[in-house]
C-alpha cells in the first residue's frame, strides 16, 4: 500500500520546496515532543518515590520502559507505516502519548505508571517519531541529508526545554496536574501528523507500488491458503507458516546479517552493552544533585545544559565526521566519544557541587553529541544499504532490552548500598568497556583483513566478512526514497 494509505492519491507535488518545509518544521517539533520528552522524567523521580513509597529500582522502571519501548517499537511502527501511511502513524502515536500521560495523572500505584506512562506513552512516542522521520524521505530528495540534520535539532530543543517546564509546573501544581498538562501538550503530535499530507513522487507515481509494498508474510499467507485448499496435509501448512515467519524476520530483523557480517556483529554487541550505562545519568543525575543539596530548580537546569549544548555540537560533529579525512575511521571516532562519556562520569564521583556538575554536563554533552551523530552513520558504513532497514530493526530491538534493564538494576544497587556514586561507577564501567571492545575489535578485524590481502587470499564476500566503510552519497532525484525506515536517535 502506498504511503497515502487507503485514501485516493493526491496530485503530484514538487519535492524539496513549498509544503516540504512545513513538514520539516513539524518533524522538528515532533522530535522535541517525543525523543526529548524522557529527559524530564528525572525531575519527578523524588516526588514519585515519596508518593508511592517506592525504591530507586521500582521508580526507575517507569522511565526505562518508556525509553525501551520508544527505541524497540521500530519494527511495529514500520508495519503500521507500510499498511496505513506515515500521517496515520504519527497521529495515532500522538493520541496514544496524550492518553498515556493523562491516564498517568490518575495512577494509584507505581505499577499502573509502568503501563500508562511507560508502555502507552512510549509506544505512542515511537510511532510519532519514527513515522515523522520516514515521511521526510518522501518530501525531500536533494536536501534529504540537510532535512534530517535540521530535524534532529528538535531532540536537543526538547532536552533543553522539557526539564525547565517540568520543574516549573511541578513547583506550581504538583506532578499529577503536570502529567495532565503533558498529555495535552503531546496531543500536538496529532497536529504535526495532520501537516504531513501523503505525497507522490514528481513523476506522479506513488513512492511505493502496491506490488512492491506487499509484505512477505502476506505472500506466504496467500500460498498457505492456496495450499490449504488443494491439500489437507497439516504438515505442509505448518511448514508454510514457518516460511512466512522466517520471511518476516529476515525483512525486519536481520539475523542472517548478524551471523555473517563480523563488523555488524561487533558493533551491535558493543552498542547493546553500552546502553546498559548510557541512560543512567539522564535518570539519576537530578535526584543525585538534589540529594547532595542542590536546589531543585538548579538540578533540573543540569539536563537543560546537556540539551542546549547538543543543539550546536551534534550538527557540527556530523559535518566533521563526514570529512574525507575520517573516511574509514568513523568507528574509532565513535569509540572515542563513548570512552569520553564513560570517563566524564568520574567528575560526579569527585564532587556533587553545582559548579562541578555543570562542568560534567558540558563534557558529557560534547561526548553524547558525538555518540548521537555517529551511531547510525557507522551502522550505514558497516551494513550494505539495501539491508540497512532490517539491520536497524535488530539493532534497535537489542539496544532497547539493555535500555530497559540498565536503570532498574543500578537502582537496586543504590537501594542496597544507599550510595548514588554507584550510578556513575556503573555507567563508566559499561561505557568504557564498550568503547574498548568496539575500538580494539575493529582494529583487530582491520589487521586481519590486511593480512589476508597481503597474503593474497581472496575473500568470497568481502563486504560480509570485513568492515568496509563506503562514503554515503545523496540519492539521485530519480530514485525513490526508502518505502519504510524506522530510525532511532540517541
UniProtKB/TrEMBL annotation:
Residues 20-451 form the Major facilitator superfamily (MFS) profile domain. This is MOT6 protein. GO terms for molecular function: monocarboxylic acid transmembrane transporter activity. Residues 469-482 have a biased composition (Low complexity). One of its GO terms (cellular component) is basolateral plasma membrane. Residues 462-482 are annotated as: Disordered. It is found in: Membrane. It holds the Pfam family MFS_1. InterPro entries: MFS, MFS_dom, MFS_trans_sf, Proton-linked_MCT. Keywords: Membrane, Transmembrane, Transmembrane helix. The gene is Slc16a5.
